[in-house]
Design goal:
2 domains; six-stranded antiparallel beta sheet; globular; mainly beta; 40% strand; 3 helices
Length: 480
């Protein structure tokens, strides 16, 4: 089912049941939206050399845009850098997160307008938001995390003329949009229209490695202008329209236009519902012949709205402390030949005994290990150099696939009602106003793997390292 068909179907259901708004935030499978979430950035070290993370955002429309760019550190999703970015029609903005020596630093030589202006020497990430939360006050926490880019408004009028690039490729007048509080006059802003996309690339030049991924795009995030002020945190996930379009899995697919009204959480519940998964599935490679290693990035972009140092609410089950807010997981794994599972009679391929562990940080890297000499043994992951790590051992398996399950009783998110068309293989389905429960946790991420050429004499100048990234597969569990 194509994205516009999904949304049209949900709108028809809503209209038929007499509900006012037909807007519903959803993940756009085509990668275009009003909000982008980049699951991971890092300047941690691998092989004694720091990584860099390259970021790009593309305005695929003929409209000007003002965006909120917000970097968050990986332990508690606390803000480490926040500014406004102005994109003229068809514009692309690029930047790099590099090692400052003590933490992360943002560099950009792009000509697009930002407020404030980014100095030629870059701007260091800051630790002001997380001092005193118990997980460390140092700038080292800014070395890894994730990134949000949120469209605040369509830029019109004189402001659009100011940010539009001239024939020399330079905006006409960036100073005109660099107001003290970051705001624009109301008559120079219109409702956001979406159409932005983005990529992240993690590079270690000395190691000869490069890992790329696409940002997660949320479309129909909001309908109204959110004034882009720097004085307060604006247009966060709580501002999203409190409806979500969530698509399940065959043979019984639920197209859910879910309505959320939990006091103080309606918007973020809707956003979380688009990312609620009962399990995460991907592959691992740990071969001795290729000296390969595997990391999985698991980021919970909305966790900070549910968890504080004192309290927590569903779908999360722990408050934040010095060791994070640890959510229990169950790990099932197989090698490529189903080792560890013996079929007997009509019982096909039972899974090996599951391993139980926890994911403690808001952006956690799962480090796969099998006890070989080239696998990491400490608290740092091998591919991404993460210290926000959960190590898991997959026996002596050198390759295969694994499934991380979120099955704790509290891993649940419920809607106030669900305006539903259920599509089965054999029938079109029915409409319902019954509340829905989404099992699992709101998670995004990818698998990153590395291979090393060990042939003597072939990699004397630059190490022959080969890297790649692959998005996760997921299971969704929706009940009524």
């Amino acid at each position: 089912m194509k994205p516009f068909q999904k949304k049209a179907l949900a709108a028809a259901v809503v209209a038929g049941l007499g509900v006012g708004s037909a807007e519903a935030v959803y993940q756009d499978p085509n990668g275009l939206g009003q909000t982008l979430i980049y699951p991971y950035y890092t300047v941690q070290q691998v092989g004694g050399k720091a990584m860099n993370t390259l970021v790009s955002v593309v305005n695929t429309t003929s409209s000007g845009k003002v965006l909120k760019v917000r970097f968050r550190e990986g332990k508690a999703s606390q803000e480490v850098l926040d500014f406004n970015l102005f994109l003229s029609p068809n514009d692309v903005w690029t930047a790099a997160v590099v090692d400052s020596g003590s933490g992360g630093r943002l560099l950009s030589f792009d000509k697009s307008c930002t407020n404030p202006a980014i100095p030629a020497t870059g701007v260091d990430f800051r630790n002001l938001a997380y001092v005193g939360d118990g997980a460390g006050n140092g700038l080292d926490r800014t070395r890894e995390g994730y990134l949000e880019i949120l469209e605040l408004a369509t830029v019109i009028g004189p402001a659009l003329n100011a940010i539009t690039h001239n024939s020399a490729g330079v905006p006409a007048n960036c100073a005109a949009v660099r107001t003290a509080d970051g705001s624009l006059p109301a008559n120079q802003m219109a409702a956001p229209t979406g159409g932005i996309s983005g990529t992240g690339t993690i590079v270690n030049v000395a190691q000869g490695s490069d890992i790329g991924y696409n940002a997660v795009a949320l479309a129909a995030f909001r309908e109204a202008v959110n004034s882009p002020t720097l004085a307060t945190e604006t247009n966060n996930m709580l501002d999203a329209d409190p409806f979500a379009l969530v698509v399940g899995s065959f043979p019984r697919t639920f197209v859910d236009h879910a309505d959320f009204n939990r006091a103080g959480f309606a918007g973020v519940d809707a956003v979380s519902a688009t990312m609620m998964h009962s399990s995460v599935i991907n592959e691992f490679v740990l071969e001795s012949t290729t000296r390969s290693n595997t990391d999985w990035v698991l980021t919970f972009p909305t966790k900070r709205y549910y968890v504080t140092t004192k309290t927590f609410v569903a779908p999360f089950t722990k408050a934040f402390g010095s060791s994070g807010a640890c959510e229990p997981i169950t790990l099932n794994y197989f090698d490529r030949e189903e080792a560890g599972a013996v079929a007997s009679g009509s019982d096909f391929s039972p899974s090996p005994s599951p391993e139980t562990s926890s994911l403690c940080w808001e952006s956690t890297v799962v480090s796969f290990r099998s006890g070989q000499a080239h696998n990491p043994t400490g608290t740092t992951s091998a591919v991404l150099g993460s210290v926000n790590t959960t190590p898991v051992t997959v026996g002596t398996f050198q390759n295969g696939w694994a499934e991380i399950r979120f099955s704790a009783p509290g891993h649940r998110l419920s809607s106030s009602r669900t305006l539903t068309t259920s599509i089965n293989v054999s029938s079109v389905g029915t409409q319902s106003t019954t509340p829905a429960t989404f099992a699992g946790l709101p998670v995004i991420g990818f698998m990153a793997r590395s291979f090393t050429n060990t042939q003597a004499g072939t990699c004397d100048v630059v190490p022959c390292n080969y890297n790649s990234a692959f998005g996760h597969s997921y299971r969704n569990t929706v009940t009524r």
